[in-house]
Write a structure and sequence with these properties.
Structural class: mainly alpha
Oligomer: single chain
Shape: elongated
Radius of gyration: 25 Å
Helix content: over 70%
Order of helices and strands: HHHHHHHHHHH
Distance between the termini: 58 Å
Number of strands: 0
Strand content: under 5%
Amino acid sequence: MDYKIKVKALREIMPIPMAEALKLLKENDGDIKLCADIFKTKSIEYICLETGCSKEMALEFYEKEKFDLNRTISFIREELFDQNYKPIHNITLENLNKTRSWIAIVQEKDFATSLDYNELASVIQTLAAIPSLREIAMVLKQAKKIKDSIFKGYSDNLSIDEFVRRNVKLDDDPDFQKAYHRISLSTTIIIDEINRHRRNLS
């Protein structure tokens, strides 16, 4: 049996990893349709397990996304989030937009600068109200406290040397650095979560 041709034919039907396609074909006497059905059934079960959706929903999205497993799971999770969305107290479209503005400062300027955002209190309150972002809210609050402490009494009419000295002190603070790295690594997560709420409140 020419498995090379059959593997190619099977993978044209379903995006099955090469090794798994060959294994399925050997286990099922080279029956391409049977192998495709087995893999599809296995994938549907996995999607249901990962998302908690029905088999019907899994099949619908799996076929719609051309059997891309990761895209299917991602889109189903978003669909289920929207279907089951319940407004959270203190989460408003206005505050979500303020949070997006704060994230833009983090990305376009830097984390330390973002702590001077005049709506930071609303940002922290918004993040704290979303269960998956509560820990990030605490990190942000702590970072703000550290910067306020280091820059206490500072004004723009002080020398540039003083400005540099305080920034160096901020950079050297281990807790601030931990907060900086945590927020930097979480921006995509924050944006995705904020957008999920924004679209449901628009």
